[in-house]
Amino acid sequence: MKRILLPLLILSVFAASMSAQRGNNIDARKLQLALYAISNLYVDSTSETKLVEDAIVGMLEKLDPHSTYTDPEETKEMTEPLQGNFDGIGIQFNMLTDTLYVIQVIPGGPSEKVGLMAGDRIIMVDDTLIAGVKMKNTDVMKRLRGPKNTEVRVKVLRGVPDLIEFKITRGKIPVYSLDAAYMADKTTGYIKLNRFAASSADEFREALEKLKKQGMKNLILDLQGNGGGYLNIAIDLADEFLGKDKLIVYTEGNKQPREEAKSSARGGFEEGRLVVLVDETSASASEILSGAVQDWDRGVVVGRRTFGKGLVQKPIPMPDGSMIRLTVARYYTPTGRSIQKPYVNGNQEQYNHDLIDRYNRGELMSADSIHFPDSMKYNTLETKRIVYGGGGIMPDVFIPVDTSRYTDYHRSVVAAGLVNRIAMNYLDRHRAELNKKYPKFAQYKQNFNVTDDIMQELVTLAKDDKIEFNEEQYNRSKPLIMLQIKALIARDLYDMAEYFQVINDDNESFQEALRLINDEQRYKKELGR
Predict the structure, then answer these.
(1) 373 confidence band (pLDDT: 50, 70, 90)
(2) Residue 288: phi, psi to the nearest 5?
(3) With contact defined as beta carbons under 8 Å apart, do 301 and 396 qualify?
(4) Which of 20, 156, 299, 429 is deepest in the core (most CB within 10 A)?
(5) pTM beyond 0.85
């Protein structure tokens, strides 16, 4: 009885002292009292750490959709790709049929130094079997990654029954945010950026200079699927395209005064035609950059309306390594457009459903299905063209989603990893032959064809995987599947840039950008000049 009475006594004293104070701390004290009561009086055992985390998550869920809490492990996983490097062994891999296939060995990295090669299958890490045991990607990565200068042993299968053992000393591995940079034609460069990470501006400038040396006069910047990243990097990259003292973005919040970011005089591509590619998954930093380009009439934005994430999160680190990302302000484009799409506090489900709603309303197929009220009209700063606010960046040239070749059969074979597996199987059998026949990518792109035998192998694997064959859907999706297989083989045989050189043959946004950028009269007309 004494064990119960003592906490009750402390609780009553705590409650009395709390009620005696009528200041700003009363709400915080209520939380403390609730935590103390549950920890000391609740019928079953509880974890204070879990209770606190749940309380924080519960509070944030009642706010906007982008205020979030991440535990220490999630925080580390989230920040690593944006910081530009991590400690590991330096490979890019895929898990196919419960086996780790090495897709690419990072040049100069620890794995390359000991002789690991693309196409190797890693069977064991230290003394742990990782093949055939349905291990998650995250669990595999935990075993391969580790502090710099520590050692990991891997056993590899390389086309022979016996395993080869490698001892790899982990090192600092760069994480690249630039997927591809190549000349799309004699005067047009193409750069594909997958995120706005710490190293992105440097990667972009390096790629820009290389393309200029190859004769680049015009540029296609591909931000399709780019979910954003660091604000300062978006500002840095926008600065590359704009003249001195032009407003790039400003932020403002209830408790945050207006802060402006303006361009400097150092831009590396202030002249020359510019097309920015976006789609419905381009968000945040992608929208800041494309919004600044559009508002200043610096380039033509091509694609579909962007995601609409215009809320600024301030990271608040917790003592245990966890983090709260709290929304403190909104992003505004130079004309004053809020990038953030509408939301209702606490209604995460409706917010997450937005892209599906856009599809159901026909917005991804027809620009006429997108309606903006007159109150959302703005004028660009140079040629006074009409642009719209209300969430996301509406492109100057709309490109509908091509649904004709995307079938349920195609989705099923892709989701089952079969397209990847077919490409890898083919490379396993023909890598040496392909290297000899196509020492240069241009030869491969022009002359290599995915044969009917390869496609028949895919159909057989799909049947083995209980995916029902549908002839009509297969025939509709066949050209797309063949292109994807060819692109995946190119990626593993050469590099990621070669993957995009193949896959962009089927990217209507890219093809339209190329047509537009080579038609000076039409390009100027789109910009109102």
Answers:
(1) confident
(2) -65, -45
(3) yes
(4) 299
(5) no
